[in-house]
Write a structure and sequence with these properties.
Protein name (chains A, B, C): Anthranilate 1,2-dioxygenase large subunit
Structural class of chain A: alpha+beta
Strand content of chain A: 15-25%
Oligomer: homotrimer
CATH architecture of the largest domain in chain A: Alpha-Beta Complex
Radius of gyration of chain A: 22 Å
Order of helices and strands of chain A: HHHHEEEEEEEEEEHEHHHEEEEEEHH
Helix content of chain A: 25-40%
Low-confidence stretches of chain A: 1-7
Cofactor (chains A, B, C): Fe cation
Bound molecules: FE2/S2 (inorganic) cluster, fe (iii) ion
Number of domains of chain A: 2
Strand order of the largest sheet of chain A: 11-17-16-15-14-13-12
CATH superfamily of the largest domain in chain A: Naphthalene 1,2-dioxygenase Alpha Subunit, Chain A, domain 1
Largest interface: A-B, 36 and 39 residues
Number of strands of chain A: 17
Largest sheet of chain A: 7 strands, antiparallel
Number of helices of chain A: 10
GO molecular function (chains A, B, C): 2 iron, 2 sulfur cluster binding; anthranilate 1,2-dioxygenase (deaminating, decarboxylating) activity; iron ion binding
Keywords (chains A, B, C): 2Fe-2S, Dioxygenase, Iron, Iron-sulfur, Metal-binding, Oxidoreductase
InterPro entries (chains A, B, C): Rieske_2Fe-2S, Rieske_2Fe-2S_sf, Ring_hydroxy_dOase_asu_C_dom, Rng_hydr_dOase-A
CATH class of the largest domain in chain A: Alpha Beta
Chain lengths: ~425, ~425, ~425
């Protein structure tokens, strides 16, 4: 799309895509990436163009826009996006850009509107994007139908809203069907955001994801998290202990009784989901391991559900417990600047101050997020040196990082080839 | 001039000028510009080089430097400029750059000096720019005359000071002569700045000007302004109502009696001036429509003068009323950063707290400026998206924007061709 | 080293080195540099690569890491460096970058450790850089010895620690031997930092050094400094007065009696050292000229030692007095951003509040640093203009600046040729 819009100025990425793809194709397997992938302005733009403007990106939850006219906004790279609930509960996604002179339409993070009205000159769009008013006098030849909002691809499943800015999005059906299945017990339409945190980390977005994809660093860094978290979620994990395997066997019996899915599934390297127990005796990621919300979600009757972990590359990981859910969204802001949004979800009828205390609920992941921010920023600082050279990932502890880096490399190689 | 100073490093704009000029030559008429004209770093530099370093730029008012030795400073792009009143009331303009090692000379926004003395090593220049002291020992071969301050072209008319940094400035005589004529009633040498506001808008300078060049957005955004402002200033405006035309006819009779000019004049697309009534019964751009200053300017005897509107592209618009005047100056700071300075002028003998209350005087345009800042910044945010594409201007409501964009395009095309 | 790490992306400096070297080779002698040497992003990167990553850089003082395990950190360009005292008092220098995934190891400005332990996954290095622990499972083929910390060259002399990031550092022996000799009286291992100041100046690092290399600007700008400072330090200085020469003769007799060296020595243009009297009757750079610390350094018995001035290009100047010492370190942060660190040193047994008052001690140079910051920033602002052109240095007042600029030019020309 870019080429059409700037037909004549030299593309600042000309030559970069091929070279980056070739560097990735020839990289040392199971080693961290070369320096420019973490700090070069050109590679950052490439990541936006080839990953964030082409892959499915986690944007938000359907429960954030429960009613017709509710909207949320976000930025994917430099692209303001709006997601709005239209007729018949349909979720529409648009570039949040007026077709007149290009103003943002919705200028708040969330809200409710009857129509999408541009704040500048009041051009007005239906919730499905059709332009219905363009001022009193645009001339006879003006064609309303040619000036609808530009849509983005939207995929809704299990309460998640994914968007894809490419014209031809990658196939994601198999994953979203499983997502529906795994999240059926939670009645995801009837949740709400109890707390939200937005932090900016001074590091490349891939360092945020790499940090998340291993628990090799947990012991030394995350005392609060380790009150509840198992450091592995797979009985085939080389680190899994006999005690963990026993616990899994016991819990899976309970979950079978409750008819909730738990099997570990991979969808390529992009997605992964599994239900895993928390520490024995612990039911929620809180400081004391007890539930943070007394009203449970959906058809869930016991808080002792372990944690349903869901990974969506490039930009989300999630923990679904019995009493509350934590969803994470990563959005790149610059070569060394990344926004990490955390939302804690509860049943929509849970009452703040009665059923849950938001300060208590957020404590563990506020601490953990801050610790991870420091780790990732220090990682960035060292990588920026001429002395940095790719180092070896541990196949035992860091297979998740290896998977992420391999996924990233494949996407860059394949997507640049197509474009 | 740049080429001479950096003879060997590749010009970061090499290739850009031609391509930008060609994009402008081939653009869709009456549509907004392509994205890079609003956010590309290279086009920003091109705008500085081809517009702000070559065209006449509004810098300040003569009444700000009433006496010999008074100076004001400003930055045009990266160029610090000083304007100083010299002998025989002459206004001199210089690059505010010492010929020794390049320090700025005058480091405050305004002041009064006997000579221009460099703060670094005290090289000393006459108010006409001649170097008269270069330390006690620069060697025998040193030639004071070869180290005068570098002058900029200065044009003074009707109290306005325009500067041009090019060696051969464009012709501006016809406009400045009319300016003298239209401003004769105001005795512009005997005004003073009652209030000043400097705001930084996070958007391209052209979006500030586009915003100013139409009142299509006024209804929805400017309640304070619409207490006084007519949304058109020309009886030939397609929007002009019969009531407006009647009002104009009545007022012009009064103005004829007062011998003040009012006819709408264009000077190419660069300048425009006209006197137009405010709303019926309103005499000044204040919250209540009443004068903000009880002492009138110059030979004016009634506050009921309507508003003399003056446009100077690329960087100024102005409202001259009977009691006070509002001048606006736009200076680009970056691809998405622009300084907007507003000055409210009154008769120099008007007494603050007696004849005028500055807080009252500034209220309407402080509110309006802030509203326009938000509109222009939201415009920028949408334009930055890959989804942005040039949209159609309304020929009825946005002819002023069309004129500006056409002027801009012509200047870029013509000025790059010459350089 | 860079070429190896980013084999495929175009080097953003390709073509720049040769052009910059050629501009310097053809520049007008005894004139300030062309504009891009003071503000161009590319030349800034060139300065980092060719000067700060290849020359000896003053990093800190040995007395800051008195005991085994003590460390200090600093950034040279984007390179985090750690200096640590190891076994047998040896000072080790490393890129402060973990060989696993590249995290910084030591994340504070100073501290004390038993081993160098990475905060991320606890890889552990001996104080001599050898990796001794890399987690519990890096696989059988993992070779600890291949993952030692990358060392930097370290040179210790007279209490100074210099580092060089190049593989083959320039010869500095002659200078460091003299440094040992001149600093013998001060027992530099037994000093401590009494006060430290870190200021960021919004100007190119070379403007900081140019500012320091002349006292042409002192009269107009440094009232506090001129309470103690002689504006020259060489009886052959064209500005030296008969009174100064007399004073030197008298003082040198005293210094001979004390067996302290004073002769002016040059080591190429890179280094210079000399002992010179302060103003007659003054013994220290304080507001009243009296000592700031009652406990003298080393074997010094009288505070009346004048000032031992030491210059080390590209990044340090120093004043050694009888009672306290002031060391300055300059580190570039960006084309127009520079960190200037000042440390005031005293005998390590001097007691704060008893032997010295830090607020009193820092007063003169805090004032002077601030004045110089303003001068250098105003210099930068003027240089950024298209009107700036290199101006003539005074051979009488600014020979030190000429020497610096010549040294810089030679290093760029020679180092780019080699790389
Ligand atoms: S930009 Fe949206 S209506 Fe004008
Ligand atoms: S820079 Fe102006 S006198 Fe030196
Ligand atoms: S980055 Fe240092 S141990 Fe992993
Ligand atoms: Fe973590
Ligand atoms: Fe407006
Ligand atoms: Fe100084």
């Amino acid at each position: 799309m870019n080429q059409v819009l700037t037909p004549m100025l030299e593309d600042p990425l000309s030559g970069v895509s091929e070279k980056a793809a070739s560097m990735l194709a020839n990289r040392k397997p199971n080693y961290s990436l070369e320096q420019p992938f973490y700090n070069d302005e050109r590679i950052f733009k490439l990541d936006i163009r080839e990953i964030f403007e082409k892959e499915w990106i986690f944007a938000g939850m359907t429960c954030e826009i429960p009613k017709k006219g509710n909207f949320i906004t976000l930025n994917i790279g430099d692209n303001p996006i709006v997601l709005v609930r239209g007729a018949e509960d349909k979720v529409h996604g648009f570039f949040n850009v007026c077709r007149h002179r290009g103003s943002r339409l919705c200028v708040t993070e969330k809200g409710k509107v009857a129509k999408l009205v541009c704040p500048y000159h009041k051009w007005t769009y239906e919730l499905d994007g059709r332009l219905i008013f363009a001022g009193s006098d645009m001339g006879e030849s003006f064609d309303l139908n040619a000036h609808s909002l530009k849509p983005v691809n939207v995929k809704v499943a299990g309460g998640y809203i994914f968007v894809c800015l490419a014209e031809t999005p990658p196939d994601i059906e198999e994953f979203t069907q499983s997502l529906e299945h795994y999240l059926e017990p939670y009645d995801t339409e009837n949740l709400k955001v109890a707390v939200q945190s937005d932090i900016v980390e001074d590091c490349n977005w891939k360092l945020v994801i790499e940090n998340n994809r291993e628990c090799y660093h947990c012991n030394g860094s995350h005392p609060e998290l380790l009150n509840s978290l198992q450091q592995f979620d797979d009985t085939d994990d080389p680190l899994a202990t006999p005690e963990y395997k026993d616990l899994v066997a016991r819990k899976q019996k309970d979950w079978d009784d409750m008819r909730v899915p738990y099997t570990l599934k991979y969808f390529g390297k992009r997605n992964r989901m599994t239900r895993t127990p928390l520490l024995d005796g612990v039911v929620s990621m809180t400081m004391d391991g007890k539930p943070a919300c007394s009203k449970l979600m959906g058809r869930i009757t016991s808080p002792d559900m372990g944690s349903l972990r869901i990974l969506h590359l490039p930009n989300s990981w999630n923990h679904w417990q019995g009493d509350h859910t934590i969803v994470f969204r990563v959005l790149p802001l610059g070569p060394q600047k990344t926004l990490v949004t955390t939302k804690w979800l509860v049943h929509k009828d849970a009452v703040e101050g009665v059923d849950y205390d938001p300060e208590n609920m957020r404590k563990v992941w506020d601490a953990t997020n801050y610790q991870d921010k420091v780790l990732a920023e220090e990682n960035q600082r060292g990588i920026n040196s001429i002395a940095y050279q790719p180092g070896p990932y541990s196949e035992t502890f860091e297979f998740g990082v290896i998977d992420f880096v391999n996924w990233y490399s494949e996407r860059i190689i394949e997507n640049t080839r197509k474009s």
